[in-house]
Amino acid sequence: MRRGSIVASQYERDTLVVQLFARCAPPGAFGHPTPTESFTVNPALKSYLDGLANWTKRVSARTSAPSVKKINLALQGGGAHGAFTWGVVDHLLADGRLEITGISGASAGAVNAVMIADGLARGGPEEARKRLADFWRAASTGGSLPPMQRAVADRMLSMMPFAATPVQNWFETMARYFSPYDLNPFDINPLSELIARQVDFEAVRSSDLDLFISATNVHTGRLRIFAREKITADVVMASAALPFLFRAVEIDGIPFWDGGYMGNPAIFPFLQATDTDDVIVVQINPVERPATPRTSSEIINRLNEITFNSALISELRSMDFINQLIDDGHLPRGSGKNQFRRLNIHRIDLGALGNRLAASSKMKTDFDFLELLHRAGQRAARRFLDQHFDAIGSYGTLDLGAASGVEWA
């Protein structure tokens, strides 16, 4: 609106100048005919008017059809706080100036990723927004899940061993003495049915979107990246398989646990799979907390945050090192053989809200709370675009050195 008002005032100013010339000029000047002469346009005035018309057309084209910039999304896992990611992506999709070309996700971020991919494949940005909203509504308290499926969803969306309902109390008590293999010998996972019902994985696999889901190989301890062509409901559940809640998800005979342990989320796949240089990391686990945790729940929560941030911080440190080598001319920049890509990294995070939320909030699944996080995500995305939209396509806005630096004694 601001740009439009500037254009309008400039146009009105130029029009007023022409009108004043026309009204104040003596007969015969600037092409005004006298009663006895024919109308001829003064060349200087004609040149000015032609230039004004061309300038107006160019400005009108820029304001009516803004350029679309391409981005990749890296979505972190973090329990019910993944609703913040829902809000961020919801606004990015609604804004209209961005095109998502690739997504990487882990745990709850993997769930968001496949919902977005499914929507983009079957109907575009508006359908992706609808898919996200439908999932978080279904997964919330009072959603469309039956009681046992509700308990499993609540527990998956939580990262903390808190008990809030009788069924969850039962889960927590039994988990102290039995593993998921004892409690669930038939490996029943109702949430897998929910995801399989809401996502058309065939449409996702057939799309053009570069999609990556992270999981942790239980045997080797290594990160496994599942590309779009390999993604199924089992892959998503493997990425979200917390060891004390779910049995390891076997894919091709290999057991996998939560992807957040080794890649939360993984960024490096974008180096090889997409030409888009900009990556927006949606980070929902706080990196810093000013207070020292003292209660058992606070200690477990902080340990989870450190654990599930460690892989991302390590990857940002590596990218900072590579970028410095490229900037200093020690590595050739490009996408060809023996060349190195320089990614522009951006970040949208919970900010101060992450520090104010209680540890137990990661297992809150009432829709009012999820909507609060959704609105916070929308506001955070709006602030990011207001401040950094022009940087997309040119340079990163996240200080990689500060975000991944080591503290030396």
Question: What features would you describe in this structure?
Answer:
50% of the residues lie in helices and 12% in strands. It contains 16 helices and 8 strands. It has helices at 2-24, 43-64, 82-95, 108-122, 125-139, 147-157, 166-175, 180-183, 190-198, 201-205, 233-239, 270-273, 296-327, 352-356, 367-388, 400-404, and strands spanning 69-75, 98-105, 210-217, 223-227, 249-251, 254-258, 278-283, 344-349. Helix 9 (190-198) crosses helix 11 (233-239). The longest helix is centred in the C-terminal third of the chain and has 32 residues, at 296-327. The two termini are 51 Å apart. Mean pLDDT is 80; it is low at 1-11, 13-25, 27-39 and 158-165.
Structural class from helices and strands? alpha/beta
Helix content: 40-55%
Which stretches are low in confidence, meaning pLDDT under 50 for 5 or more residues running?
A: 1-11, 13-25, 27-39, 158-165
Strand residues, percent: 5-15%
Biggest pleated sheet: 8 strands, mixed
Distance between the termini: 51 Å
| Helix and strand pattern | HHEHEHHHHHHHEEHEEHEHEHHH
Shape: globular
Number of helices: 16
State Rg. 27 Å
- Total count of strands: 8
Mean pLDDT: 80
List keywords for this structure.
alpha/beta
Chain-wise SSE layout:
Layout: H1 2-24, H2 43-64, E1 69-75, H3 82-95, E2 98-105, H4 108-122, H5 125-139, H6 147-157, H7 166-175, H8 180-183, H9 190-198, H10 201-205, E3 210-217, E4 223-227, H11 233-239, E5 249-251, E6 254-258, H12 270-273, E7 278-283, H13 296-327, E8 344-349, H14 352-356, H15 367-388, H16 400-404
